[in-house]
Amino acid sequence: MRRPPAPERRDCTTGDPEALAAFLASVYGTRLTARAPDPAARPYRVSCVAAPTAVAGELELPGTLGFAAGPASLLVVSTLLAGRVTVAEGHEEHRFGPGHTFLSGRLGRPRTARTQDAAVESLAVPWAAVQAAAGRAEAGAHRAVRFTGLAPLDDSRAGMWRRTAEFVRRSLFAGGPPWSPLILAEAGRLLAATALAVFPNDTVTATGDGPGGSDATSDTLRRAVAFIENNADRDIGLAEIAGSVPVTPRALQYAFARHAGTTPLTYLRRVRLAEVHAELRAADPAGPVTVTEVAARWGFAHAGRFAAAYRSAYGATPSQTLRHPGGD
């Protein structure tokens, strides 16, 4: 498996709005200009970690700033920690205050924004990941996912996004290197799928994808299981598994629910957990292998959740298996 580029930490501290805009444009891949009616009392500060699958950012924007941006190349979700933000697209204007989570931009839509003493946390994913999560990876521009609003559907879904964002930040970006390619890929997929569940969009169930759909068969399950078991070491997700059958992602989910009582990604994690177990059993207890290293290689980022899942599956901790490979 070709190793993707490692995440890059980037920082910018400047009192110049144009320099700030240039930095943000380089991070988020969009045309961007910024203007300030008056000099800010403090410098603007941006800190981010950019990977091919996701970008995490923290922004401090004192004073008043006006932005004009071209169509976004990433889906950017922001949570406002302090201050005010107004986003305008065409004739629509959206105002956000502290605690609000919102889309900073949508595919194909230029926009303007005004910030006032804003502190923002953002997470962004490529549009290709959103397309894949919606089962439209091979679709043309006319079938691109269209978000119909900038705010979450309701408060509970806004909370879902914040919990997901906190998990990604703590388990992935806050920890620093070394980064596992599988963990990086899963972070992007998780964020894309969560965005589709949280924000209003035109994703619809295709004919035949419902609980009684003709593709949700035991043969669909069998083909998908074989693909997962043969490719668990690769960067695969729901779209790739569905494409191997081939059926739509929704039909695949129904097949697993109906015939296996689980989900495709839960089954994938189960297979990867079994691979971790096998590696720990085969390792020399006195050798250089560590539980953390093996877990990360198979895509497990959160040590506590991994240890709990492992103990539930095998009745022992990962370190016990490593120390006593024949005794678990």
Automatic annotation (TrEMBL):
Keywords: DNA-binding, Transcription, Transcription regulation. This is Helix-turn-helix transcriptional regulator. It comes from the Bacteria. Residues 222-324 form the HTH araC/xylS-type domain. Signal peptide: none annotated. PROSITE patterns: HTH_ARAC_FAMILY_2 (PS01124). InterPro entries: AraC_XylS_family_regulators, Homeodomain-like_sf, HTH_AraC, Tscrpt_reg_AraC-type_HTH. It comes from Streptomyces racemochromogenes.
